[in-house]
């Protein structure tokens, strides 16, 4: 692939000398073999698939329309096993400290009494909720779902940019990206050792059920409605978990419990996975003009008769001013050294730091502490003098509401631009998703957001950003090369991947010419390519794709056949039981699961 990584920013795929990093070598080979024109054609298929499936997001106040397809770049962002282990440890440490902090400040507030964090900073936060002080959620879990934004600086170090604890969004795009990639570029995954992500919704449902005040509780996803920017995600998660998607008008409080209106009568609700901010949850407790929430919900929550994820009041911990103290929380609650560092942060409420912020605005990035999605920002080096002066007026009026950070040169990644028909460098960040309960579950990957506007450092979708599929490998690379037979038949076991000979395979099967051996001489079904002859690189890549799609189709057909077999009327057993080693003792379903479904893996 033709690509110029440059030397100013850390490049995820290439070294400064232009060589592909070890864990990217398999993908580089695949892209070179596929060719730009075929890659472009499949990129168009991805756009069409996203449009047909309604994978969209909403931009408020945009003259081009509110709803649009979520931009997606198919060059995957790849993280080797050792790097992911470091990220995973750092995120686990961080979420434990944040949950301990929330438990503390809504009870004894010991950390404030000890002067580790200024009490003024916490109690003046717009997201601190006195209404739930003294309320301990089920299991003591405040932060059920956390999305932490990570960036990589010029030296390649992972830094935490911010924590998202209220209702972090984007995980549906992570899951949709992987599903689309495996269908449109199936051969790209062959032999790479990519860890699956599709178990996220199962893990989320398990976590939500564990917080239910009743056994076998009822879980719902509470959405503001179809005009919300993340409505696709709300509907997607509800559908994948098999639970109801509800709006505030679908719920009501009666007899100290929350009920859902259904066509079969009312049904008690035990767990609410809310995608609504605290302000709108209950008009009797918070904003009285809210038509999105449920009147009386907070009272039921205080009585412990309904669980809410994430818990009410978690927003104080993702206040961008409180974020600056998370390393201190880690030392205070866990007695550990932070594994992942913060980006250096200046606080407007501190007089000395405010003076520095005002004097160096042209070199800093300003953020409003309560905003998200890229709104309320000022990037000093990219702003005009008039824009800076207008923004600083707001900072002077209410300094508590602003922080500033130095400009960090986000790492870059090869990205395909259809208008130029080539690969160019674009800045990226990473949002992994953490499920916190009795155990900590981190999906191996995350949402890699990419700044598609050339030269931009802002990756948010509302500001012209898109996303990439994020791979976490089970090794550090390079991936073991696959032979032609392995590409055709999907045998990527260690013995095969490292060159097990044909005679070894033959002897393992008891001698003679095996089916695999005879098929490997000629495979007419995949394009009539003679396997012993010369094959072009592009044909090899396309052959891998066809083979992968063929195996996926065969697995789907096998599952359908197994289901049909299992639905047949049972056959009366024979008069005498079969011997224990008799083949008839095992059903077709069991044999299918043993021999064929095992190859399908978890990532379906």
TrEMBL record:
Annotated stretches, region: Disordered: 459-530, 551-604
Skewed-composition ranges (Pro residues): 570-580
Domain Circularly permuted ATP-grasp type span(s) in chain numbering: 76-451
Annotated coiled-coil segments of the chain: none
Biased composition (Low complexity): 495-523, 551-562
Top-rank lineage group of the source organism: Bacteria
Name assigned to this protein: Circularly permuted ATP-grasp type 2 domain-containing protein
């Amino acid at each position: 692939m033709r690509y110029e990584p440059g030397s100013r920013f850390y490049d995820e795929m290439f070294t400064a000398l232009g060589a592909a990093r070890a864990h990217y070598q398999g993908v580089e080979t695949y892209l070179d073999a596929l060719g730009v024109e075929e890659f472009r054609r499949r990129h168009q298929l991805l756009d069409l698939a996203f449009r047909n499936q309604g994978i969209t997001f909403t931009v408020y106040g945009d003259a081009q329309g509110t709803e649009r397809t979520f931009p997606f770049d198919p060059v995957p962002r790849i993280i080797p096993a050792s790097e992911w282990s470091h990220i995973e440890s750092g995120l686990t440490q961080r979420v434990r400290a944040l949950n301990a902090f929330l438990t503390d400040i809504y009870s004894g507030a010991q950390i404030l009494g000890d002067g580790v964090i200024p009490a003024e900073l916490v109690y003046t936060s717009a997201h601190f909720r006195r209404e739930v002080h003294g309320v301990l959620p089920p299991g003591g879990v405040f932060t059920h779902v956390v999305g932490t934004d990570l960036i990589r600086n010029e030296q390649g170090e992972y830094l935490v940019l911010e924590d998202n604890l209220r209702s972090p969004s984007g995980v549906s795009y992570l899951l949709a990206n992987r599903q689309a990639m495996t269908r449109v570029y199936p051969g790209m995954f062959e032999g790479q050792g990519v860890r699956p992500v599709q178990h996220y919704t199962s893990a989320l449902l398990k976590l939500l059920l564990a917080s239910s005040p009743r056994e076998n509780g009822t879980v719902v996803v509470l959405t503001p409605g179809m005009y919300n920017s993340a409505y696709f995600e709300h509907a997607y998660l509800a559908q994948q978990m098999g639970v109801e998607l509800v709006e505030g008008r679908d719920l009501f409080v009666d007899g100290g419990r929350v009920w859902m209106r259904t066509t079969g009568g009312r049904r008690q609700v035990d767990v609410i996975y809310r995608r609504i901010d605290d302000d709108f949850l209950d008009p009797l407790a918070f904003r009285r003009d809210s038509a999105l929430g449920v009147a009386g919900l907070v009272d039921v929550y205080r009585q412990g008769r309904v669980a809410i994820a994430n818990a009410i009041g978690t927003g104080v911990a993702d206040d961008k001013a409180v974020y600056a103290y998370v390393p201190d929380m880690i030392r205070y609650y866990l007695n550990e050294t932070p594994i992942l560092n913060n980006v250096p942060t200046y606080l407007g409420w501190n007089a000395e730091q405010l003076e520095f912020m005002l004097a160096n605005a042209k070199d800093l990035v300003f953020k409003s502490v309560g905003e998200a999605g890229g709104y309320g920002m000022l990037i000093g080096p990219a702003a005009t003098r008039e824009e800076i002066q207008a923004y600083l007026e707001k900072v002077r009026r209410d300094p508590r509401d602003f922080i500033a950070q130095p400009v960090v040169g986000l790492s870059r990644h090869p990205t395909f631009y259809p208008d130029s028909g080539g690969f160019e460098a674009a800045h990226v960040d990473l949002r992994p998703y953490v499920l916190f309960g009795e155990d900590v579950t981190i999906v191996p990957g995350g949402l890699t957001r990419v700044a598609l506007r050339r030269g931009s450092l802002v990756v948010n979708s509302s500001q012209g950003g898109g996303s990439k599929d994020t791979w976490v490998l089970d090794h550090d690379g390079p991936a073991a090369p696959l032979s032609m037979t392995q590409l055709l038949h999907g045998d990527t076991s260690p013995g095969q991947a490292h060159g097990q000979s044909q005679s070894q395979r033959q002897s393992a099967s008891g001698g003679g010419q095996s089916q695999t051996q005879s098929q490997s001489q000629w495979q007419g079904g995949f394009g009539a390519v003679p396997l012993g002859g010369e094959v072009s690189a592009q044909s090899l890549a396309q052959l891998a794709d066809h083979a992968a799609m063929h195996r996926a189709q065969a697995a789907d057909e096998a599952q359908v056949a197994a289901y049909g077999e299992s639905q047949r009327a049972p056959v009366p057993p024979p008069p005498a039981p079969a011997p224990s080693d008799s083949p008839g003792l095992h059903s077709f379903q069991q044999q299918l699961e043993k021999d064929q479904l095992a190859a399908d893996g978890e990532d379906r």
